[in-house]
Amino acid sequence: MKSIERSARSVEEAIAEALEELQVSREDVDIEVLEEGTKGFLGIIGSKQARVRVSIRDKREERAQGAVAFLQETLQRMGLECSVNYAWDADDVLKIQIAGNELGLVIGRRGETLDALQYVVSLATNRNGEWIRIILDAEGYRARREETLQNLATRLANRVKRSGRRAVLDPMNAMERRIIHMTLQDDPSVHTHSEGEAPFRRVIIAPRRNR
Amino acid sequence: MKELVEFLAKALVDDPEAVQVSQVEGERSLILELRVAPDDMGKVIGKQGRIAKALRTVVKAAATKEGKMVHVEIID
């Protein structure tokens, strides 16, 4: 939690300065008055500066719960009975897990419904405040998909090496393209890059000629 | 289905009061017409229609369950 201390002639001025410095509004902070401050005689003799500590409130937990509640209600209105859990990972990414019976519908073809839900939950949660990255998952779909993509990358890279011709993959989103690039980044015989505009952007695996 | 679109749209716009969804029901299909405040159009469409596409994908998944074709149209 970020907090700063400021001194000024009055408590109000000290608060105003601190808010200016932190670039936040008053309802987003906790204020602690350390020193009331006194005017003193003629404003000179015996005057004492006011001192406050202003701390930005940690709204992360609150917003995480908001994201979960929003997703729960969405799923319910979709006619799906699911339970939703969340956890923060080491990189401050909010990971939301969906469990239930009809996860095929929640995930969709190649995860398109899961991605759409993830996008909408992210937009609804990040309407204001610091951006929170949110990843939605259902019965380990993301990890399975990652493995599938890694296998695909390796298989296609082998084909490129044998044939000497480049391979063009299906359109993928940024997260999936990244998995392909990462899988092959240490392979000295192929080179990967992306072509086209989202949502049709695709990865190309090409042979590296100058070995 | 109407409530789903309403709920999602209200969560995305600045002026939830202005969100309106009307439905035109056919035999096997359902058209949902979404209206929002003019300033909120971008909030439900998004760059290159990305938000609108996500909304339609979510609605489509819900519609699969009911075995109906549902179209979401954003009216300006």
Total DSSP E strands of chain A: 9
- Give me the Rg of chain B, rounded: 12 Å
What share of the residues of chain B does DSSP label as strand, in percent? 25-35%
Can you tell me the residue ranges of chain B where pLDDT is under 50 for at least 5 consecutive residues?
none
Structural class of chain A, please?
A: alpha+beta
Strand order of the largest sheet of chain A: 1-3-2
Uncertain runs of chain A are none
Q: What is the 3D shape of chain A?
A: elongated
What is the mean predicted local confidence, pLDDT of chain B?
Answer: 93
Q: Count of DSSP helices of chain A?
A: 6
Could you say what the CATH architecture of chain B is? Answer: 2-Layer Sandwich
Helix residue percentage of chain B? 40-55%
Instruction: State the secondary-structure class of chain B.
Output: alpha+beta
The succession of helices and strands of chain A, N to C, reads EHEEHEEHHEHEHEE
Number of strand elements of chain B: 3
What is the CATH topology classification name of the largest domain in chain A?
A: GMP Synthetase, Chain A, domain 3
Strand content of chain A: 25-35%
